[in-house]
Batch of 4 targets.
Target 1
Amino acid sequence: MVRVMVLIFEGLMFLSVAGLLAAFHYDLAVGTILLKTLASLFFVLTGVYGYRRGKGRRLFSKPVLIALLCSMAGDVLLALDRTQGIFFVLGVAGFAGAHVMFSLAFCRVCAVRKTELVWTFVVFVQLVLLLALGNFDFHGLLPVLIGYAAVISFMTVKALSFWNWRQGQKKVAALIMCGGVLFLFSDIVLLFWLFGVGMQEEVQSVNWILYYVAQGCLAASLSA
């Protein structure tokens, strides 16, 4: 029953994503916003289902559920943004909050190690170099993106730390590691879409596919 419910919610999420890609391709602005919101709602519902089942794991599941809600808020705000103004800043803040909550949940399972801080710095430096050397037009938002890069760097490294914890919980560990890495990749692709010069619409489509797979993995980890 658990697996069936998760498959239903995530199947509906990917159907919504397929509709989202079609609406975006045909430049249906209202349809894009609605389908993006609907797809996000289904990964939140997956998380809510896992949260209700995992009564003994609330130290982990509660911040993950909050992170999923923050992500949905970020999705809606970025969908509404047209000028990279206040909606964009609030959307980035929503995703930054999501990464903080994901990181908190991961830290409650696996204690932070010094090597993870080192790897966080390494990933952060690579992202800053990408920001500095890429062909981007940031519209004055570079400080916001640098702060966001620091947050997602730690979240990704912390997700990968579940490799050391996977014994006995291989499915949960695999979902968290995949979700963390795909989230980072989706954000890198989104960077090129929002700020890159001369990007094609396929870039946005790749971002959405990576992003919703990542969210699907993280939401499903609550029921694994």
Target 2
Amino acid sequence: MARSEATDVDALGEIMLIQGTMQRQFLRVLLRRVVSDVPAFNAEMFLAELDLLKESLESGGETSALHKFALKEWERLSEMALDAIASTRTKTEAH
């Protein structure tokens, strides 16, 4: 691989990392607002649906590196959702 190609790959990797971080931050803020501002939001149902989607991904029998990456990313997003809901509930219950 030529030097300029390696630099391009490094730059693309850094851009993707920044983009992924920004998207997670955005989703975390959005979820916190939904949980706190929408009285009818059913957090348990939301988390159950996330689990169903994860099970669907797992049941595909796929073992490629890309599929494993997707599962790991889904776990991160699910954990983020759980943390956002838990932190919102703690603040709401304290009032």
Target 3
Amino acid sequence: MSADLSPRQLEEEGKASYARADYSSAAKAFAEAAAAYSAQDEPLMAAEMKNNQSVALLQNRQASAALEAVIGSEAVFAAAGDNRRQGMALANRAAALEALRRRDEALAVYQTSAEILEKAGEADLCAEVLRALAGLQARGGKMTEAVISMQSGLMGIEKPTLKQRILKKLLFLRLWR
């Protein structure tokens, strides 16, 4: 990366590195983009780049650094009234907490993320978060809660695929057995 690049160019470099599965370079580029956007007084873009950095760090198995990168970004989005990105930031935070085996914290943050995404009308993103929540609940032995979370996520999808429709029916049957 170079100091001569604009924040947008750094962002694009991060995306290109991520697409090549070069997560270390992606995280570095996103961190530089975040700093550059901050310097230009663009807090929303800086927070978005911190989220991108967090995802790249998680892919690179650096959960502590991923958590550090994402902390606080949800507050930036909340202050701007951007519920979609606030919910996504919380989901990224929950994923980092999950990777750190901080299960109870991750469960609570995933739940908050799902609620915010639902409020924002982001059914597909909410469904993804609920699927992650259900997986964490299932691994913790909370099968009924996992089934309910998964079913809630599937109910929010407007046009479910055939696989999702079948899963909905199976989950419904499992819940009422």
Target 4
Amino acid sequence: MNENMNQNIDQTAAQSAEGKTFSQEDVNRIVQERLAKDREKASKELDEREKELARREFRLNSRQKLESKGYPESLLDALNCNSEKEFDKALDIIDGLIKERTPSEQEAAEMEARQKAAASAPKFTDKSEPRKSGMDMIRKAMNL
């Protein structure tokens, strides 16, 4: 491959210089420059691929963390996924909010007991007799 590149460079350089001949040092320098550019380009492409792979892996790990805690996958889009530390911090905040707003077992039992008591309590409204106006009730209470 290197020999083919050298021949191509030799031909291109000779044609562009209108008959000017290059020394072996010039050809070697040109080849080295082009190889360096190709290596740099390949290195950049490899770095981009590695970054993309790391992003995908992090997103997959984040999704697994959400699922292990019982949260829906759709929550992933709302959380900060720039780094694992930031993601864990956001997840801890959500955990704290849920714990804060979820009643304990004792509170839930007390709430259920109050609801049952309220449902079984007697109703003090008598709808058989039309409601009297406020003044009539006061007159009756004062025996007027």
